[in-house]
């Protein structure tokens, strides 16, 4: 059995990064991982322009004490420009986004002036360069605006479009094969047999994987039969970059995933000193990474979140990101065995005068409600046996709440 930290380290060390780059339409790149840095090919905005509807003037024509009348020489809607410099005593009617003419160094909002046909009276108190957006104010030509490894979000796609790009290079999405095992596990939609459970693990993991942005190869629900498990893992090893199975990795008579994996591939480690999640396996099956997760729903999700998800992000080419960790006072009391890292399902109360965290209640590895109510995992180190009210604890925020 290895420690939690060693398990995470080994997995990440063994995780390859996608080396296949695809070119996708910007409009179809949401959630994909950027494969190369993006540099601004021109200034954005590409010209000095008005930040509001009003009147473009020369600041040196204005009087700090008195209103000044100016002659209106042009009307500039967005997209139009004046090709001659603004002369002394002149002003232009200008709309938001229209390029300001040469010599214009102040835009006065339309609601602040008195205007009549051909003339505008500008009050005192205007500031030089007021209400002008300068070329390159958003992005300067030649500067890096998006880095390799960034997951493209809605704003990123708009940014790419503002640079005139219609396609973007991204890393290929990994294919992740997913299966559940167990003779006592059944699909939802049919009456539940006594002593059986519905296959909640595959539903939760499929949703988590889809949200992460990988391609899911659903291998279904596989009975605890050596031939069936061999067939499923063989298919996964041939078609996927990673395989996730749930159940069958403990030491029972019908826990067949581990021996089949040993026969078909390689076991890197089995059993981790963590609770929940002790019975888990990690290995290789052909070119695919293999993650054997516990069958208990909470243990399955905790291991996925803490170990599998981090590995898949690396495989996807995503830039490394620190885990969202904070330190908070604990409310309650918890006893535990030393020698293993515990991860309690917790609820952080951000709205309290002083934020704190408490457990979500009973912490059994099969109690899915404890995970559904949690917005954090409370991390208790291996050497700690007692957690008391007021103790400072490390909290890992969950992204599903």
Description:
The chain is an alpha/beta fold. It folds into 4 domains: 2-19 and 173-316, 3-Layer(aba) Sandwich (Molybdenum Cofactor Biosythetic Enzyme, Chain A); 22-42 and 147-171, Molybdopterin biosynthesis moea protein, domain 2, CATH 3.90.105.10; 49-133, Molybdopterin biosynthesis moea protein, domain 3 (Molybdopterin biosynthesis moeA protein, domain 3), CATH 2.170.190; 325-397, Beta Barrel (Beta-clip). 20% of the residues lie in helices and 32% in strands. The protein contains 7 helices and 29 strands. It has helices at 4-14, 154-162, 200-212, 226-239, 257-264, 297-316, 368-372, and strands at residues 2-3, 21-25, 38-39, 49-50, 54-57, 68-76, 90-94, 106-109, 114-116, 119-122, 132-133, 144-146, 167-171, 175-181, 185-186, 197-198, 215-222, 242-246, 266-270, 272-275, 281-285, 288-293, 325-331, 334-335, 341-349, 356-359, 376-380, 386-387, 392-397. The chain has a 6-stranded mixed beta sheet, with no helix packed on it. A 6-stranded mixed beta sheet has the order 17-14-18-22-21-19, sandwiched between helices. Strand 25 (341-349) and strand 26 form a beta hairpin. The chain is elongated and about 90 Å long. The two termini are 32 Å apart.
In angstroms, what separates the terminal alpha carbons? 32 Å
Taking all Cα atoms into account, the compactness measure Rg is 31 Å
- CATH class of the largest domain, anyone? Alpha Beta
Helix content: 10-25%
Largest sheet: 6 strands, mixed
Spatial sequence of strands, sheet with the most strands: 8-5-7-6-10-9
